[in-house]
Amino acid sequence: MSTVFTLARVAADLGQDEDALFDIIVDMEPEDGLIWVHGSGDEAYPAFTTDGIDELKERIAAHTAESDLLPPKP
Description:
Elements: E1 5-6, H1 7-14, H2 18-25, E2 34-38, E3 44-48, H3 50-69
Antiparallel strand pairs: 1-3, 2-3
């Protein structure tokens, strides 16, 4: 059985902002565990495999560490 989770679900489960995660996943590929689910019309939604969620967690940690190194915005 294969299961994928939408960005909205993953954001809620991880306690993260959906828009902020969208910025982090912009360069993820299918081999990273990200797929795009297309609905009616032009709608497309990012979804993650369990490996994709693990990859996303790593990217969140790296993004957070990188943000900590930058000076605060005025």
